[in-house]
Structure formats: structure tokens, C-alpha cells
Amino acid sequence: MAKKDEIIETAKKTAKKVAVKAAKKAVEMADVAVKKASKAIKEAQTPIITPQMAKIPAGPLELKWTNYKNHQKLVNPANKRRLDVIVVGTGLAGASAAASLAEMGFNVLNFCIQDSPRRAHSIAAQGGINAAKNYQNDGDSVYRLYYDTIKGGDYRAREANVYRLAEVSNNIIDQCVAQGVPFAREYGGLLDNRSFGGAQVSRTFYAKGQTGQQLLLGAYSALSRQIGKGKVKMYTRYEMLDIVLIKDENGEPRARGIIARNLVTGRIERFFAHAVVVGSGGYGNTFFLSTNAMASNGSAAMQMYRHGALFANPCYAQIHPTCIPKHGDFQSKLTLMSESLRNDGRIWVPKKLEDAKRLQAGEIKGRDIPEEDRDYYLERRYPAFGNLVPRDVASRAAKERCDKGYGVNNTGLAVFLDFSEAIQRLGKDVVAQKYGNLFQMYEKIVDENPYENPMMIFPAIHYTMGGIWVDYELQTSVKGLFCIGEANFSDHGANRLGASALMQGLADGYFVLPYTIQNYLSDQIGVPRMSTDLPEFAAAEKAVQDKIDRLMAIQGKRSVDSIHKELGLIMWDFVGMGRTAEGLKEGIKKIDAIKKEFWTNVYIPGEANSLNNELEKALRLADFIEIGRLMAVDALHREESCGGHFREEYQTPEGEALRQDDKFSYVGCWKYMGEDQEPQLIKEPLDYEFTERKTRNYKN
Amino acid sequence: MDQYIDIKVRVWRQAGPKAQGHFETYELKHVFQGASFLEMIDILNEQLVAEHKDPVTYDHDCREGICGMCSMYVNGHPHGPDSAITTCQLHMRKFKDGETITVEPWRSRAFPVIKDLMVDRGAYDKIMQAGGFVSVNTGGVPDANAIPIPKPVADEAMDAASCIGCGACAAACKNGSAMLFVAAKVSQLALLPQGKIEAAARAKAMVAKMDELGFGNCTNTGACAAECPKSVSLANIARLNREFLAAKFKD
Amino acid sequence: MWLKDSSIGRKFVMALSGAALVFFLLFHGCMNLALVFSEEAYNAICRFLGANWYAVIGSLGIAFLVLVHFCYGLYLTIQNRAARGNDRYEVRGKKEGVTWESENMLVLGFIILGFLCLHLYNFWFRMQFAELTGIETGAFDPQNGAAYVKALFTEPIWGQVYCVLYLLWFVVLWLHLNHGVGSAMTSMGLNNLKWQKRVEVISTIVATLVVLPFAAVVLYYLGMGIGMLC
Fold this sequence. Notes:
heterotrimer; A: alpha+beta; Flavocytochrome C3, Chain A, domain 1; five-stranded antiparallel beta sheet; C: mainly alpha; 8 helices
């Protein structure tokens, strides 16, 4: 009897166990199904931006821009005088736009964060500017420049925009020469060119190693002329802290001004304009250590984002392969060595691990390693392009070697860039003439003579291809709010080619925006100048003031920089050159923790209503934290490798980036949904009508 | 080889444009010589913030010697005791253990101090606005190769154009003269055919503005060129004089 | 008037007046040199430059040049000091390639001017001025300048003191000219990249050429004086 009971009991138990297991499994399956379904629903619900919404003109690729210009609306001279335009930023894009708009007759209010418009960070660009002039008779054309740019961007840019960029590139060179930009010339008196990464033609115009400086000074001189004439009112040492939107008679919000802080007096001021143009640069400083200037920031972009402008492809950040390696915790920024160095410099690491170990220990120098023991890994892996592969490829290849233990300095995070062969071939004088100032810069920083011992370089964050989403007219999703230069996302796809940033900045500022903005402003001629006493201005100012007060009230224990450095390390480790789903999730958690730390434990000395550098930095860091998170979220969602975005799960057996064109051939735009809310994804599909998408191949 | 050093930094502190300034001395221990001068100031500022004191205000931006923002008079030299660099490119290996380093702002009537080491160099912008440009509008310009320019001329124009507008020339000059800055721009544009057309008017307008803003008179001491971080040549000043005198005699 | 109101105009005036004075000094030096070779020749030149209308006009012209050079120099320096602002540098480092004299031209100018007064009293007052006004300086026969010069410089002790003072003066003058000549050339626009070093050399050569004849004469008398002492 007892046995029977026992058996029944066991059977019951087993049955229960099985049932529970089955139930659990059913629940799990249901869960997965629900998840799948919800994902599908979400996917189906993901809003789509159509080419019509992006205002891409119809017609064949090479006629789109011409057609657009032929049919766009213009503003007559008398009306231009009645319209005010705010331009934020005085880099290549901002200064050229401000100058060109003023020349046309608009009243321009121009803002910059530095003490002079001439100091915007465009000035630091070294190598050159691309144009499809074909002065070298090497088969260049507008189409080829377009194609190289699209391909270099790993087929993640808009065809129409890139073609327009290539089209106006030639006008830029003409314009700059007319302004007195002293481009390098050949002995015959004609313009000289050099080659840059990602191209097989020489189409890069340059002015020593200071091309960005000379182009910016050209734009600055045009801007100065307009300031002198009173057509541009210049506000230096001002930082934009918010955009003011005012609804029109149809209830549609339009950008009508900005709130800016006078950095000298600390006063918060209001400015009205019929349209606002932002050319505030990229957000590379999210990583703390980057090649960006100390004041470069992403706050203007975040203000636009919070007001409804979409943030496109935030995860596309360019890591530049030729920077001087980091040398200590106190380091404030990384210094770029121009890509032009790769014209004559050869990149290598030792073939043997023991040589690398001895280099790391400081026992030997690069020159001590014989030729046969050197691994010119770029030439080995990419015979066709060699040392001139695009930046993303070169950076990843350097990381791959260093990860394997072949790094050549004490931290093991450096590779050699060697000129010994060039010095032998061309002579020291020629090398000095071409790269002398760069060599001098290197020697001042590292205290080592690059003529005698190979330079050491390592990749660093340099440029952000992602940015505020704009349509073909460079208008954001907010009416009357335009975004130009590095701050927008438009032309470089997932990776930017060398010497193309200057091209894009000046194209936007000189030749695109001054046209397209008129299509918008032509409807605004009836809008009178508005008072900055309107409630919208007052509310915006109050929000800014509240934010500042909140920051000043924290009075915690940590300096702004110490938190920023921590954020930078997290970004580099988890959202850097090689990203994984796991790492990104971890990174997001850590960024959230940093955010909490910042808002509870930052210490800002001094007063808010006076010159206060720490407060300026804190305001910027608050936005960097948000951008960092957005970058991670975007990187996590983009399950493919393309250009500057490398997900380790998606690579070929040889370690090359593996795109997923069927799933991710779109611009990932993020819509702000509120403080601490997950942003919403909006897709702009990239249907390549005119160009065949291929796997990027720099091997043969 | 770079070592760790202990130093004292004597910094000019001035609360505002009208306030009375004074020197304050701070001790810094264990500073790596591989650090840049501005990184050393960053370390000092971190230290001051930790002590809840007001950090030293100074101008800086690109930190690679091209924006022209940094402006410190270190141990009696604009941009410090090294040649052809800006302050941000100055490294601590130029200083010895136990050294006291004196840091002052640019001192020039035309560059009033805003706070501590930060000065207002708006005067240079005003000079540029008076004539430092070629009067061409965007668009409608000839092809870039339409006018050949001899390479030596283009190179000399480039060397003049490498000026970063930092103000070291006026700061170094015992006369507080801005001649090298003005000369560099006038030279660049006078050398190139594109700028030649307005050369006379430009020289007159820029010099007149420079005089109006309270810069001193050049006496050709050469301190400006010696301290210029971009080694802009004194020969440009001769060219400016030539352009200016020719323009005046023509009138 | 741009020669007064613009900084380059003012520099031009300095350069021009300075250059003219250099030419005068060159002539004056050559004339002095005659003392070493032939006292008659010197006296002949003295007669030629005595109480004649052209010599008087020349003297007035030179006086005017000195006045202009001095006034402009003073004016420029006052302006330049003001251009520095209220606070001056605490530490001033030695700037490579910047000569001491170039930064101290006004001081050198004042020293030169001081000696000039002595010199004018010693010679011009007792020679041309005496001849013009006919006043009796009691020193010597105005027609025999050479004898007077010789007497002054070879007089025991005082003669040697004068010689040393004059030599000191020439050193200061050399320093002033060593910067001044090149500076004048640059101010007049006569310089460029290629000529920069050459202008510096020219400046030194001219300064030496100006000072050398004067110094030669003084050294000649110094030797003579010391010889007479022994």
C-alpha cells in the first residue's frame, strides 16, 4: 500500500515537474514570440523618410543640382535687406555661409565661441582639399570624385548630396584662389596636387601643411570684409545655449532665434532671426581625448536634437590612423599628423614578436630593426592602395597589429611611420620641404628626431560623420533651422575620405546653403522682425538659466575634467574602434552611471554670471554624456560593420568590415522623446539608384 | 629623457579688466616633463579646483599650434623659452627641477586683460576688417589656373600667410607695435596678383586702423620675428613700408 | 599730414633725417681726416665752410635735421611706451637676434646729443660761430682751425681726457648707427628676404665707415699727446 502511495507520489511529482517545465517553456516561447512580434510591429511602425521628404530633386544624378537651382525660389534684393539670419560658428562652413549670405544682402548675426572668428577648429586641418579639377591629367572627373566619396563612405551616404558636393568642389578652388589663398604651385606657376587616402588620382590641393588654416583665413577675410561693411554683426566669445522656436499661423514651430551666453560677462542674451544656421562642428570630444580643439563640442547639436531635429548616424565616428600616441594621464588632447604623410611614409611594425617586446621595453629603436624583419602590413594586406588606404581601414589594421602584441612603444599602442625610404629616394631636403613643419611639430612633442628614427603613430578620434539630419536643402527636421559642415550628417556616409571635410564645409557654406536657404526665406519675407520679449524667448532663457542654476547648486566633489576623462575612457573602451553588442550594452550602463555621477557630484567653482570656464565645460559635458549614450545606442542597433563603425561580430575571415546591405542600408535617425526616454528610430532608406554597391576593396 | 620635476609657478592674477592685478605663486609637485605647458596649467587648475579656489583663466583651443588662441608670456618670452612654437607646443622639458616659472599675460594697451592671462585681441580683427581681404564675392571668379603665379612668389606669400594672429609680435615688441601682423597680411596679398589690385588701398587702410587702435611705432628691433611662433619674416615689414610709402607718394 | 599722423610716416621721417645726418657725418669725417695728412688742406676746408652763406644755410639745415630727428624720436618713444599699457612685464627675456642697441636707441641718442653739446662748444662755437659773430673766444685764430684742434687734443691730461671722451662718443655713435642705418633702410622699404642679412652687414659697414675717420683723427692726436707727455 505504502509502495503504491509512494509510486503515486513520485508520479505526481514527476508530472508536476514536467508540467512546470512545459509551462515554463511555453511561457518562454510566448515571450520570444511576443518579442519577435513586437519587434516586427516596431519595425513596421518605424517611420520612414522618403526621398520626397528629404527634398531630393527628381531627374538624373548629374542634373539634380542644376534642376534644383533652376526651379528654386529666390529672394529679391530689397527683401533680402529685411531678413535676418543667425549663423552659429565661424569655421569653414559658418564663416563662408555668413560671408556669402551677407554679400547677397541678408543681415547676418554670426556667433563664435573663440575670441576671434579666425580660430575655429577648421584651422587645424593640415593636408588639403579635394576637387575634381583633373589638373594632373590623371583621369579625374566629377563622377570619379563622387564615386570615391560614396565608396569611401561605405555606401552609407546620399547619392544626390555627394554628387552635388563633387560638382561644386571645383568652384571652391576657384573661389579660394581669387581670395588670395596661397595654394602650393609647381614651377610653371600652376597649382600643385598631392594624393590622399582612398583615391587613385592626385586631386588634393594644399597650402604647405596648413591648408585648413589658409582656407579658413580666406573665408575669414571674406567675413571680415562683411563685418567691416556692417552686413555681419559678429559676436565673439558667445556660446549658443538654446534654440528658440515660435509657432507660425499654422501652428508649425519655426526656428526664430537663439539664446546665447556671453562668455566674458556670463550674461544670457536673446537673439532673433528669420532663420538659424548652425555650423558648430563635430562631437569627437565626447571621447575627451581626440584631435578636436578643447572648445569643440556637441552642445549646439544636442539643442537642435532636443527641439525635434533628428540626430543621424551618431555612431559613425572617424578614427584617424596617424596621430601622435598618448603618453600620460594628464594628456589633454591628441595631435594629428597629416594624412599627407602617408604619401611618402611607410607604416610598419616588427615581424617578430621579440623585436616588438624589445621596442616596448625601450631596449632598441625602430631604426635598429633590419628591413627584412619589418612588416609593412598595409602594403602586405592592400597591395593596390598600400599606405594610402582610407582612414578606417588603416586605423583598424593598426589596432589589429597592436592587439596581437606588435605595438612599438612603451604602452604597446603605436606603429611606425617611416620616412627613411623617402629620404633615400628624394633626399632629406625634399622631404623637409614637403613635411618640414609636421616633422618639427612631432619633434617638439615627442622630443625625437623623425628624420633619424621612424615616427610613432596611433589612431585617435578625429571627425564625426554622423550629425544632425538635414534634407537636400540642408534644413533639419525643424523648419527654419539649417545645419552645415561637420555638424550635419549628409555627405560622408560611414567614413570620410581625407581632404573631404574642407571640401564639404566650404561647399555647404559658399555654394549650397546660400542658395537653398532662399527657398525657405522666400516664404518669410512677410514675417516682421520679432521682439525678443516674446514669451517663447523668455521661456527658453529661463530653461537655460535653470539648467545653469542646477549645475552650480550641485557643489559636489569632482572636477568637470575628471568626469569627462572617465566618460572618454568608457567611450574608447566600449564605443571605440571595435564594438560588440555586449560591450555596447555595458557601455550604456556605464554612461548612465556617469550621468548620475555628474548630476550629483560635479563641482563648479565661481559665479554663474561671470567668466567661468568650469561652468562652460560642465554645460558641454552634460551634452557629451547624452551624445555618448546616443552613439552607443546607435552602434548597438546597427548590426553590421561599415566605415567608421566596426562591430566585431560582423567581419570577414580576413578581418574586413562586413556590411549588411539588406538590413542596414539606411540612415539611422534618432528622435528625441524626452529626458531619460529612449529615443525613437526613424529610417531614411538609401536606395542606390545610380551606383552599384560593392564590397569595398582596396586590395587590387 | 623626460623626468618628473617639482616647480613653482608665478602667475599673474587679475579679476577683471579694471581690477588691480598681482602675482600669485603656486607649487606643483611631480610634473612630468613630457607634459605640455598648458597641461601643466591644467594640472594646476585641477589642484585649485580641488582646493575650491578660482582656477587660472587662460586662452587655449586647438593645442597644436595653429589656432593662435594661447597667449602666455613665460619667463620673459611670448609663448615661452623655445623657438617657433606656441605656448601649447611648449613642453615642460624646457624647465628644470626646482625652477620658478613666471607667467604673464600679453601686455599691450591694444590687448586689454579680460581676466588673469586672458586678453582681448579684438584689435587684430578690426585691422583685418579694415582691409585684410580681396574684395571678391562668392561665385563668378575665374578658373584657379587662369593666372599662373611663380612658385617662389607663391611660396613667399604662403610664408607670410602662415601668421596665426596670436599677438606675440605686439606682445614681444618693446614698442607694442603690430607691424609684423599687418605686414604679413599686406605682404601675402600684395605678392599675389589677385591681391595686387587693391594693394595700395589695403596698406593705407590697415596701417591707419593699426595706428588708431593704439599700437606703437615699429623701430625694427626684430623682436617680433624672433618670437613669432610661425617665424614670419621681418622682410614683410619692409614690404609693408614700401607699399605704404608708394601709395602715399602716389596720392 | 601722413608724415606726422601715421606710424610709417613718422618712421619715414626718422629714417630720412637719420640718413641725411649719416651723409653729413661721412662728409665731416672725411674732412677731419685731412688733419692727419695736411693741416693746410684742413684749414682751406675750414675757410670754405666758414662764414659763408652756403655754409650757414648748411649748418642751419643740419641743426634742423637734428631737431627733427630728436623730436620725432622722443615723440615715437613716448607713444611706444604708452602702447605697452599700464602694467609692464615683470620678466623680460633676451630675444635671439635682437641687438641691445636696437632696443635702446633713445638712450644712445641722448648720449650722442650730450656729447654733441660739448663738441659744439669745443669746436663749432669757437670756429664757425666765432667767425660769424666775431666775438672773441680767446682760444685761437679762427683762420687756423687745425692748430686749435691739435692744441685741444694734445694738451697734457685734458687733451687725453677729451680723446677718451670722444672715442667713447664714437662707440655710442657706432652702436646707434649699427642699428639705425639698417633700420632706416627697412623703414624706407629698402629690404627684402634676400637682402635682410646684407642690410645688416651694410649697416655695420656704414656705421664703421662713419666712425672710423673721426676715430682715426682722435687716435692720431691721442698718440701724439701721449708721445708729448713721455
